[in-house]
Design brief:
The complex is a heterodimer of chains A (260) and B (262).
Chain A (H helix, E strand, L loop, with lengths): L8 H23 L11 H13 L2 H33 L1 H14 L4 H12 L3 H25 L3 H9 L4 H38 L5 H10 L3 H29 L1 H4 L5
Helix pairs in contact in A: 2-10, 3-4, 3-6, 3-8, 3-9, 5-6, 6-8, 8-9, 8-10, 9-10
Chain B lengths: L6 E14 L2 E14 L3 E5 L6 H9 L6 E6 L2 E2 L8 E4 L11 H7 L7 H14 L15 H13 L5 E5 L7 H18 L2 E6 L2 H7 L2 E6 L4 E7 L11 H14 L12
Parallel strand pairs in B: 3-8, 3-9, 6-7, 7-8
Antiparallel strand pairs in B: 1-2, 1-4, 4-5, 9-10
The chains are: A mainly alpha (260), B alpha/beta (262).
Chain lengths: 260, 262
């Protein structure tokens, strides 16, 4: 059904023109000595560094440490967000009980929680995972509530007319209807988790991409700082692509009509 | 014409009032209607005359203020058994389910998995959707969606099918096609059918009796039997006579001369 649209070659060229142009100007400025190499190393130098720390296993070690934290924190935050969001979405009273607390706590930036978590839990793994959990929790929570609330009453009426049990209505009508919104929450949550892990590692860690960047800066290795920053961007991008793929696979019905 | 058949649905002195802003609003006033097994009844009336509310009360989505509605000798309750099916103006399909899965949703939970396939297949054949079993609703045209909706309402084999302006949102050609098909289904499935519509021709084309509602509060103004054999010719003298008759109910002679508006 969903036919793959063939993207014209010119469109591809135009869309990658800006990043390529930036890299070229960057490279020339660095080679000609227009910019301080300690502040902006040449592109080739960054690339060599990336290859170097990949070969020694240094990069993958840090990356794996960060990814494992993200996975743990994301799973915890997403499950909590879906569970509490479901309760708040269904029950008026649970919603009244918790909504003011949510509005008070939600605007606090994740960075502000890090000192509190360190105070409570020290600088161990638990602190970092907790920051990620909280970062994931908010967008998943809000989108789950929103998804469950927005179920079309007309579709619920049909289920009532067909004398469906409450359990069937929840599983077969409300949840599927809420799923696109929950997925949006998960994607936003994954973005938050990825930025939280970097922030937490910059403040308190001995391993991970965030730590690698901070440490490279302290030991005056600017190329390594840039490698770290680019890797964060790339991984974030790939995770989002992966989640989008998963979404369009699971929610085929949401897009199936486009290529009618 | 079906006088010898048993009673299917009895609407007995039914009134409905809504409380709006602390004020009681009369929606339906003293409705009496006896519908026999296998009869095709249409209710016509202006919008807001409470005809859809009556269907909602029959199926239990709204409470009756006064009077009672008796189905097969029992009052309307929230029993497990699906005795009545309903199709709405919008198809109201679940967009995450395929055509076959949407129809399956209409099958009561106690039916064995093994029997479900046959039931679905039968309905798909009945509404003419063979080959579309795996399509999603947003890949179908409006008329096809409405057919799935009718199949979902019929698959539990209810005694009565309520149709709440199911063709109202379709274009004229599709609507006439669907009217032919519903007639076909009515003949094959032998259900009692109660259709709410504002399309007078549709009512005459399909019904054994036409119930004409007046507006606010909704009251039965006239019940018109249509005796001619089906399929009915929309330009026959009988058809035109009944159409005129119904027009007169809606537009007082001083308002309009029906001759010019048919």
């Amino acid at each position: 059904m969903a036919k793959k649209r063939k993207i014209p070659v010119t469109e591809i060229i135009v869309s990658i023109l800006a990043p390529v142009l930036l890299l070229v100007i960057w490279q020339i400025s660095a080679q000609k000595g227009w910019v301080n190499k300690a502040l902006l190393p040449a592109v080739t130098r960054i690339f060599d560094t990336a290859v170097g720390i990949s070969e020694t296993g240094k990069l993958s070690g840090h990356l794996l440490a960060s990814l494992s934290r993200v996975v743990k924190g994301f799973l915890a935050g997403a499950s909590l967000g879906i569970a509490i969001g479901t309760l708040m979405g269904f029950s008026k009273w649970v919603n009244h009980f918790l909504s003011s607390l949510v509005s008070l706590l939600r605007p606090i930036p994740m960075i502000a929680w890090i000192p509190i978590f360190i105070l409570w839990m020290g600088i161990g793994e638990l602190t970092k995972i907790s920051v990620i959990t909280l970062g994931t929790f908010w967008p998943v929570l809000l989108n789950t509530i929103q998804g469950i609330r927005s179920v079309d009453n007309k579709l619920l009426e049909v289920a009532k007319v067909l004398k469906k049990k409450r359990k069937t209505i929840v599983l077969k009508v409300v949840f599927p209807a809420a799923l696109p919104s929950i997925f949006t929450g998960l994607r936003l949550g994954m973005g938050a988790a990825w930025s939280c892990v970097v922030a937490a590692e910059m403040i308190a860690a001995r391993q991970g991409i965030g730590f690698m960047i901070t440490y490279a800066r302290e030991t005056a290795k600017p190329a390594e700082v840039f490698v770290g920053v680019f890797v964060i961007g790339l991984i974030g991008f790939f995770i989002d692509v992966l989640l989008r793929r998963l979404e369009s696979h699971l929610l085929k019905w949401n897009t199936a009509g486009v290529s009618k | 014409m079906n006088a010898e058949k048993e009673l299917s649905l009895n609407i007995d002195h039914v009134s409905k009032r809504f409380l709006i802003d602390g004020r009681e609003l009369n929606i339906l006033d003293d409705i009496n209607l006896e519908i026999r097994q296998g009869e095709f009844i249409s209710i016509v009336g202006a919008s807001g005359c409470g005809k859809s509310t009556l269907l909602k009360m029959i199926i239990g989505l709204e409470n009756v203020t006064d009077g009672r509605i008796v189905i097969d000798g029992g009052e309307v309750t929230s029993s497990e058994e699906v005795k009545i099916g309903m199709a709405f103006q919008e198809a109201r399909l679940y967009p995450w389910l395929t055509v076959a899965e949407n129809i399956e949703f209409g099958i009561p939970d106690h039916v064995a998995v093994a029997d479900r396939k046959a039931l679905i297949k039968k309905q798909i054949g009945l509404v003419g959707l063979k080959g579309f079993e795996k399509a999603y609703p947003n890949q179908l045209s409006g008329g096809m969606q409405q057919r799935v909706s009718i199949a979902r309402a019929l698959v539990s084999d209810p005694d009565i099918l309520l149709l709440d302006e199911p063709f109202g949102a379709l274009d004229a050609l599709t609507r006439i096609n669907m009217q032919n098909e519903i007639l076909d289904i009515w003949k094959k499935a032998k259900k009692t059918m109660l259709l709410v519509t504002h399309d007078i021709d549709e009512a005459i084309f399909l019904s054994d009796r036409i119930v004409v509602f007046s507006g606010r509060p909704g009251q039965i103004r006239q019940i018109i039997p249509v005796d001619s054999s089906r399929p009915r010719d929309r330009s026959s003298a009988e058809f035109v006579r009944i159409r005129k008759n119904i027009f007169k109910e809606f537009f007082a002679e001083t308002d309009l001369d029906p001759e010019y508006y048919i």
